[in-house]
Amino acid sequence: MKTIKAGLVQQSNTADTKANLLKLARNIEDVCRRGAQLVILQELHNSLYFCQTEDTRMFDLAEPIPGPSTGFFGELARQFGIVLVTSLFEKRAAGLYHNTAVVFDTDGSTAGTYRKMHIPDDPAYYEKFYFTPGDLGFHPIQTSLGKLGVQVCWDQWYPEGARLMALQGAELLIYPTAIGYESSDTPEEQERQREAWTTVQRGHAVANGLPVIAVNRCGHEPDPSGQTRGIQFWGGSFVAGPQGELLARAGQEEENLVVDIDMERSENVRRWWPFLRDRRIEEFGPLCRRFID
To answer: Cis (ω within 30 of 0) for the bond into 133?
Structure first.
């Protein structure tokens, strides 16, 4: 049986990016000491989630790839001999920025990048102000541990990206995330949102016969504008198997998980449930339309 130990780092952040980086390094070391071979960090983990407001000063947080953060995290990947999935605010050119996942292999080299494709624009999530939609497509990243289908946060609501990753041989679906409640939401609404988020990603696991890893941030981050009460990030990072079964799930506070993932189980599940075999691909053309009137 081929098993991968996956380490999920779920942490809260402050405005001190240096302190956040040191905290990330400590948490990476923690899961590695517990045997993690693959480590996944949350979305935009170097800083606070700055998209609660539209503020041009926040572009100063962005950096080129390669740049200081890729050097920092590449060295951690090399030091611990892990595959490391990170999430960075990329400055591609003056006035052109992306929300970019960078994956490092065990030697510290960059195995590949993915630029977030679906960009939200909702109250407290003003990402269209900051990020240009990705232009690298949906392609798995080959690493020494296998092919990783990495996407970012809002992408996790769309089955198309997960399917495209699966059709190109992804062995895992991975989603660094930053999602939470507005504090005025009722407890019932909070639960509905959190469970919908978990359920849709478990659905990607089932539909594609692949394990899914979602890593969310946690903690309360105030709205600098004062227009809302800020975001309470709900944590809930989890790993689901290829039938959607929950292998592990974090609570709403800071937590590091190390989870064994059976990488051979997908083969058996796909034999039992041959969804890829039975797809009527000749009938799917209308999916490329925005809406069918």
So the answer is: no
Residue 85 within any structural domain of the chain = yes
Q: From CA 184, how far away is CA 146, in angstroms rounded?
A: 42
Q: Quick one: which of 68, 121, 62 has its CA closest to 94?
A: 62
Burial class (CB in 10 A: 0-12, 13-18, 19+), 47: middle
CATH number at residue 197: 3.60.110.10
Whether 43 is catalytic? yes
For the whole model, what pTM was predicted? Answer: 0.97
Nearest to 106 by CA among 70, 74, 65: 74
pLDDT tens, position by position, 242-276? 999 999 999 999 999 999 999 999 999 999 999 99
Residue 289 lies in a domain: no
| pLDDT of the residue at 185 | 87
- pLDDT, tens digit, for every residue of 92-136? 999 999 999 999 999 999 999 999 999 999 889 999 999 999 999
On whether the CB atoms of residues 7 and 85 are closer than 8 A, the answer is no
Quote the domain boundaries for residue 24.
3-279
The verdict on residue 125 lying in a domain is: yes
Q: Mean pLDDT throughout 163-192?
A: 95
Among 32, 51, 153, 218, the one annotated catalytic: 153
How far from each other are the two terminal CA atoms of the chain, in whole angstroms?
Answer: 49
Please give the structure tokens belonging to residue 57.
């000063």
Q: Name the catalytic one among 23, 32, 43, 255.
A: 43
Is the pLDDT score of 1 beyond 80? no
Domain count, the chain: 1
- Is 218 labeled as catalytic in the residue annotation? no
What is the phi-psi region of residue 208: left when phi exceeds 0, alpha when psi lies from -120 to 50, beta otherwise?
alpha
Q: Which of 32, 51, 90, 116 is catalytic?
A: 116
Question: What pLDDT was estimated at residue 257?
Answer: 98
With 90 as the cut, is the pLDDT of residue 226 above it? no
- 153 catalytic? Reply is yes
